[in-house]
Automatic annotation (TrEMBL):
Its main location: membrane. The chain crosses the membrane at residues 46-66, 86-108, 182-207, 219-237, 258-275, 295-313, 345-369, 375-393, 405-430, 436-456. InterPro entries: CBS_dom (IPR000644), CBS_dom_sf (IPR046342), Cl-channel_core (IPR014743), ClC (IPR001807), ClC-type_chloride_channel (IPR050368). This is Chloride channel protein. It comes from Chryseobacterium formosus. Keywords: CBS domain, Chloride, Chloride channel, Ion channel, Ion transport, Membrane, Transmembrane, Transmembrane helix, Transport. It is found in: Membrane. Residues 491-547, 554-612 form the CBS domain.
């Protein structure tokens, strides 16, 4: 027994020396252990272990963020007298956005790509390699924004944090692109699962939003990561922090007309939310202000909205829970509407204004400098749509209106239309309300809302923004892989050039002594004037007569010009349109940089596909 243990110990020491040899001498002990396990376990076994570790870490990050924000928000909204709350609503939302912007500018050097779009960008543009800074930057920024009253959600920052954890774990242990993408998605899955204590919804989020068009045979890491994140949430989070709804009515098929109409309202409101968000984003981008002044402007707008309508303060989940518990009067009593006689008409007017202004509050929070996402705002707005629809039906004389159920399915409907994620919305509400018998109304409302959203715009706002920037291709995942390739890597900077004024004999010497079959003709300042191929030169090279033609007569104008900012997918389309295999690359001053070859791009693309499929 002692001999066996000694052999194991010596084997581990040898393993450690080998890693020191390959530049990992600074690796921590637990990293060495995991590296060793990676060499001993099968690929699937190590991925399952990785899913557990990534899931637990991402889940813990989500728990910490939710607990911190809830504690601060709870102090402001419940421990402070109404008159002081108004003062807090004036100061804190403004302060939250301004402080977040200052943190981004001073600590994170102005890098503030946020939201689900940040994950999609890294998958499409950066081979699923996420900066290690995002493992904590999103938590810090969103904690400041939302805890001080930013009208946004924590779930998107948690998902980005989890994705960064998964990506950096995969980078540390030198996993392939496919495995790196899988663990990135596992981290985001665990983050969503911990935020809502809804593991199935977390998995649906990964497949529906992050991995669109991707077929994974190894989905077990996603499952174990979601379970780990959800378990940590259930164990560590207090009951009032959990996204949980216990009061609801049993499903009655006679209520289907309610759900059909609510689906239409949810879809229309979701479209309104998206349009307002886009217009506010465009408005803020066009302001001739510095980033700090934009933050101050957005913070001032948000503070004003929160003073007038306190439900716009923070995530808003407490308001939705009040709807399901029948405590609507308590919401209005904490606002300036307390000075009016609270009747059903007053409640309806109040909720209509809250709905209309929620889109503005969220947009100013996110785009003026705060950090957050649209998960919580869409759920809050959806619950408000459902409750507003229910009390209007009651005022019209309808009996037995399923108020709580309409609130719940309204959340799923609006989230489906805003996020373009009906399956995520359906399972999220089903898990959060223990309402699996509500699957039929959840599906009715979510699908109707989703179809309305698709009718207005075929792709989600997150994808559309990246597609408009040329950062992602929205139809085929194989073509999206091209976005992980960099044009800079394919430029042959050792291409041979010749001066336009050079004698033909110099060109012949270049052909005889060189190894290239295409040449750039440039003037004295390296400006591209034309190109020459061996086919152009061959008739003169093997002629027995003295060559009288000049380079100007021999060269041809290139059929197309490539610029360094062109994407590989765009370049391949140019190659297909022109029918050539080599094209010159020039800068903004038309100075020659080098040639780019179609075959080089295709070879790299095939290798990427091979790595991804292995």
């Amino acid at each position: 027994m002692k001999i066996h243990n000694k052999r194991k110990f010596l084997s581990f020491l040898k393993f450690k020396r080998d890693f020191q040899k390959y530049g990992l001498e600074k690796a921590r002990s637990y990293e060495l252990i995991l590296h060793w396990l990676n060499t001993r376990l099968s690929r699937n076994q190590f991925l399952v272990l990785s899913g557990i570790l990534v899931g637990c870490t991402a889940g813990l990050a989500g728990v910490v963020l939710k607990t911190l924000v809830h504690s601060i928000h709870n102090f402001i909204t419940t421990k402070v007298h109404f008159e002081y709350q108004i003062l807090f609503y004036i100061i804190f939302p403004f302060l939250g956005i301004v402080l977040t912007t200052l943190v981004v500018l001073s600590i994170f050097k102005g890098q503030d790509r946020k939201g689900i779009g940040a994950i999609l960008y890294e998958i499409a543009q950066n081979s699923s390699i996420v900066s290690s800074v995002k493992m904590y930057s999103q938590i810090i920024q969103s904690a400041i924004t939302v805890s001080l009253g930013g009208s946004a959600g924590l779930e998107s920052p948690i998902a980005v944090t989890g994705a960064a954890i998964g990506s950096n774990y995969a980078q540390t242990y030198r996993l392939t692109y496919k495995e790196r993408t899988l663990l990135l998605a596992a981290g985001a899955t665990a983050g969503i699962a911990s935020a809502f204590n809804a593991p199935i919804a977390g998995i649906m989020f990964a497949f529906e939003i992050l991995l669109t068009g991707v077929v994974f045979t190894d989905f077990i890491p996603l499952v174990v990561a979601a379970v780990c994140g959800s378990l940590l949430s259930r164990i560590l989070l207090q009951e009032d922090v959990l996204f949980r709804f216990y009061t609801r009515e049993a499903f009655n098929y006679l209520n289907v007309p309610y759900y059909l109409i609510l689906g239409i309202f949810s879809g229309l409101y979701a479209r309104y939310f998206v349009v307002i968000s886009q217009k506010v984003e465009h408005f803020i981008k066009n302001l001739k202000f510095s980033r700090l002044r934009k933050a101050m402007f957005g913070g001032a707008v948000l503070s004003l909205l929160c003073v007038l309508f306190p439900p716009l303060f923070g995530e808003g989940y407490d308001t939705v829970k009040a709807f399901t518990n029948g405590n609507t009067h308590s919401i209005i009593e904490n606002s300036l509407f307390r000075y009016f006689e609270i009747k059903n008409f007053t409640i309806i007017i109040f909720l209509v204004l809250v709905l209309l202004l929620k889109a503005f509050a969220t947009s100013f929070t996110i785009f003026s400098g705060g950090n957050g996402g649209n998960f919580a705002p869409s759920l809050f707005a959806g619950g408000t749509v459902g409750y507003l629809f229910a009390i209007i039906c009651q005022q019209l004389g309808f009996e037995n209106v399923p108020v709580t159920n309409l609130v719940l399915v309204g959340m799923a409907g609006t989230m489906s239309g805003v996020m373009y994620a009906p399956l995520t919305a359906i399972f999220l509400i089903a898990e959060s309300s223990f309402g699996y018998d509500l699957f039929i109304p959840l599906m009715i409302v979510s699908i109707i809302s989703y179809l309305i959203a698709k009718w207005f715009s075929p792709i989600s706002p997150e994808l559309k923004s990246l597609a408009d920037q040329g950062k992602i291709f929205t139809n085929k995942h194989d073509e999206n892989l091209l976005f992980s390739l960099k044009t800079e890597d394919f430029i042959d900077r050792y291409s041979q050039t010749i001066s336009i004024n050079a004698p033909v004999t110099e060109l012949f010497d270049l052909v005889k002594n060189g190894s290239k079959n295409i040449f750039a003709v440039v003037n004295d300042d390296k400006t591209l004037k034309g190109v020459l191929t061996l086919d152009d030169i061959r008739p003169y090279l093997f002629s027995n007569d003295e060559v009288s033609a000049t380079l100007i007569q021999m060269m041809k104008t290139p059929v197309a010009i490539i610029h360094p900012e062109n994407q590989p997918l765009e370049i391949l389309k140019i190659f297909d349109d022109t029918g050539v295999w080599n094209l010159p690359v020039v800068d903004e001053r038309n100075q020659f940089i080098g040639f780019i070859s179609k075959s080089t791009i295709l070879m790299s693309y095939r290798q990427l596909l091979k790595d991804y499929s292995n």
